[in-house]
Amino acid sequence: MPVSSPQSTNISTSGETSSxxxxxxxxxxxxxxxxxxxxxxxxxxGATFRGIHDSIVNYxxxxxxxxxxCCHEEISVAIAHGYAKANGKPMIALVxxxxxxQHASMAIFNAWCDRVPVxxxxxxxxxxxxxxxxxxxxxxxxxxxxxLVRDFVKWDDQPHALSNVAESFLRGYRTAMTEPQGxxxxxxxxxxxxxxxxxxxxxxxxxxxxxxxxxxxxxxxLEKAAELLTQARFPVIVADLMGRNPESVRHLVExxxxxxxxxxxxxxxxxxxxxxxxxxDVSGADQEIIKRADVILxxxxxxxxGALSTTDRVARIARMGIGKETQVIHIHLNDLIxxxxxxxxxxxxxxxxxxxxxTSVALPELVALCKEKMKGENPKTSGRLQRREECTEIHNxxxxxxxxxxxxxxxxxxxxxxxxAKEIWETIKSEDWTLVNGDFNSWVRRLWVLxxxxxxxxxxxxxxxxxxxxxxxGATLANKGSGRLCVNIQSDGDFLFTASALWTAAHHRIPxxxxxxxxxxxxxxxxxxxxxxxxxxxxVENAGIGTQITGPDVDFATMAKSYGLWGKxxxxxxxxxxxxxxxxxxxxxxxxxxxxxxxxxEPR
Length: 604
Ligand SMILES: Cc1ncc(C[n+]2csc(CCOP(=O)(O)OP(=O)(O)O)c2C)c(N)n1
Ligand SMILES: [Mg+2]
What we know:
Elements: H1 25-35, E1 40-43, H2 50-59, E2 66-69, H3 73-87, E3 92-95, H4 97-113, E4 119-124, H5 136-139, E5 155-157, H6 165-177, E6 184-189, H7 190-194, H8 219-231, E7 235-239, H9 246-259, E8 263-265, H10 286-292, E9 295-299, H11 304-307, E10 309-312, E11 317-320, E12 327-332, E13 353-356, H12 359-374, H13 379-382, H14 384-405, E14 410-411, E15 414-415, H15 417-428, E16 433-437, H16 443-447, H17 468-478, E17 485-491, H18 492-497, H19 501-507, E18 512-518, H20 523-535, H21 556-562, E19 566-571, H22 574-591, E20 595-600
Parallel strand pairs: 1-2, 1-3, 3-4, 4-6, 5-6, 7-8, 7-9, 9-12, 12-13, 16-17, 17-18, 18-20, 19-20
Antiparallel strand pairs: 10-11, 14-15
Helix pairs in contact: 1-2, 1-6, 3-4, 3-17, 8-12, 9-12, 15-22
Bound molecules: thiamine diphosphate and magnesium ion.
Thiamine diphosphate binds at residues 106, 463-466, 491-494, 519, 521-525.
């Protein structure tokens, strides 16, 4: 049977097929996975993909992909989500027919909103009703299964025959990877997986199906942008998802320096966009800076309206924070990923110069055009140097205030969040580290040095709890062999949704350093309760009902231990923090094992 052997490609990195001939449909499916160099397949098992399961293990040798066993489909997808953000390429999350897909749906929604490529695969059927077992095969088969998640995946498919599988998967892979990226879902009929291969099944040369080159902005639009930015009195840059491409960070630094323009990350903290040590980084003074802008450049801002407005969270009123005459430029791809079901496209912002382009190629071009326009300009008389100094002052003032906050170890009988954040920083700062989840509600950004794009991966995207454990394990898998310390700042409420990810961490020896940000509360909700009570003049003391996670207090260290992992805590005293984190870090580095430190602290 002729099987073409794929070479390296810009879709995959190496491409490897099994040396054996496919006997069953699912063997061919695994060959397709291998041709695209898929490293892992995370799943909770299920009979609808038992064919693929068997082929991964017995035909593919449990390598490329290798099985990552999970206790919940939400974990499988979150692992693939975190992996893709850390690695830039996707892995597979396999989910059992209707039931696994329903469990997975929250995590798929997170990946969708976060614009991250995840290959969600499932099984179904048999679609041939004569071949179904009574009851179970009927309740677990849908027409069409993809309908369940169609509104928040870029594409879904159910190949009709084995001969359709390779093309379907290549299309899925490419669709997920093409900007704006996102999850896809492909469902395989049990019959296709379990049937014998009778004729020729060809593996296409994956080199010829690669992701298209990123698309550039229209030249005249970029020139207009350069003109506005170079002539501005006070240009401000707002970045959001731009940093998903690490190269873009370098270009943004150059643009900010050329223009002497302040840079703000949106408060969504979606990606690493700009080094927080740079004097032009003024995130934290957003309102003060935005108000002064006469020209704003947005870079892949998902919610530009939100980023430029102030919101009263209780009254639910947003007011524009910029003047009517402020010119807004936005380089983005948002309009290419609009769906009607969820309104994750956000409020429609007023933009004077919208540019639909991939920032990874538009930014360097914009830098070149700005430089060209500024040729011969005297930075002293142009006011640029003065602006840079002003920004530097703001930058330094902010950091000074934040450092002072970290000097208070205990308040109201609890460790303060900034103090704990600082102690952890002091412990890990000489390591090559990456923060794979969490950020202590921005205290990491305020107190740690983030100067390399891989150091921060952003948040869940869809605001759905249950993300942190899976995503951090996936990102740690992606960092395997890098020697990098992978740190997860894990909030307690989010953890409890997917706590059984501890089993996956233990079983697969995934060496993440997890710090439990234990405020013994779904505090975000408690805070809403407090605000609600205040605005209605009702007792704030009741805000803990239905929100606090006390009585019993969860003993997270013992939870970790019960999965055979190393755990320490609860840590409640200032002098205990550093030694505990040091010990955990040693454990992670030396034993290459997951370790958890439970630190009880103030809510915020
Ligand atoms: C799946 C899901 N259920 C409920 C919520 C509502 N919610 C938003 S934040 C939050 C509390 C989160 O608690 P935790 O992870 O401990 O973080 P904290 O706010 O305490 O720092 C809740 C319940 C949600 N976002 N997602
Ligand atoms: Mg909490």
